[in-house]
Specification:
mainly beta; five-stranded mixed beta sheet; four-stranded mixed beta sheet; 1 helix; 9 strands; globular
């Protein structure tokens, strides 16, 4: 019978948690603007972007750079998983209010 060394066994259990764990960042939609317009995140890590729509109209979070598009209901809240991202800038916008709802995620 073979015995597994405890540290190796524990490392195998904990390693997948690093892939799941992620920081949360809140992005608010108010008066057809994203607040904040710039979000700085650590590069090479997964994050959760929580988008809260305080407007009475639906908005669509969209980013060609991030390959994401998601409807955010009026007075609603959604989660968007992002990353891990290489260092750089990733633009996003509100598809229904492109003139005002703009922003960028900076991975550094």
């Amino acid at each position: 019978m073979k015995y597994i060394r405890v540290p190796l066994f524990l490392a195998c259990l904990v390693a997948p948690l690093n892939l799941i764990a992620s920081e949360e960042y809140i992005l608010t939609i108010k008066n057809h603007y994203f607040i904040p317009e710039i979000i700085k995140i650590p590069a090479n890590q997964k994050i959760k972007l929580i988008i809260e729509n305080q407007d009475d109209e639906v908005e669509e979070f969209e980013s060609f750079d991030l390959y994401r598009e998601k409807i955010v209901p009026s007075q609603g809240r959604i989660k968007v998983n992002i990353g891990p991202l290489k260092p750089g800038e990733y633009k996003f916008f509100g598809d229904f209010h492109r003139q005002t709802a703009k922003g960028v995620i900076i991975a550094e």
